[in-house]
């Protein structure tokens, strides 16, 4: 996989679908930094939307089952995604792989809502609570010039179709209780959307040095709340 392949494929895919994407606050994109992008998540198109809006390839953390399904596994790898490990190894493997990619100057993308809003589809202005794994990564990664960049994907026009039974995915990943049902998986295709780039938050060595004891909880909660509130504000502004 070439460095630019995920970005080039994303551009071609959005063009083929006729998706209109409008980007706001591009001046907030950091330069010469190790970047972790955090965004809301309602569609399989979200990693591609982020790459096209930022004009930069991303290595995106994706669900474990995507690495278990033939053909889908190859497709997500071409788009720069790397699936999470199974539940017993997930946390350690996630941190190790993510830190290695940041050290190699890759930009990362993460969706702290997880799979919830894609299964139990949210409205364009709504979000599910954020999981805190990305905040632990930011505070543990000893990478210089590290910054988290919150981004809102605000859908204005979209099509929603019902696809395969969720139970089929459960066979590939029994640890995901969301998949243990026979209802159909909704699929969102954006026709027109806004990408609103939030205020970057720089991860200083002082913040990382405090990653222990009681201050660990405080630091993780602060980063998680900052990103969730920033994206929620942008999302409400970007959905007309």
Automatic annotation (TrEMBL):
Residues forming the Phospholipid/glycerol acyltransferase domain are 35-156
Which UniProt keywords are listed? Answer: Acyltransferase, Transferase
State a single Pfam family of this protein: Acyltransferase
BP GO annotations: phosphatidic acid biosynthetic process
Q: Which InterPro entries match?
A: Plipid/glycerol_acylTrfase
GO MF term list = 1-acylglycerol-3-phosphate O-acyltransferase activity
Task: State what protein this is by name.
Answer: 1-acyl-sn-glycerol-3-phosphate acyltransferase
* Species of origin: Euhalothece natronophila Z-M001
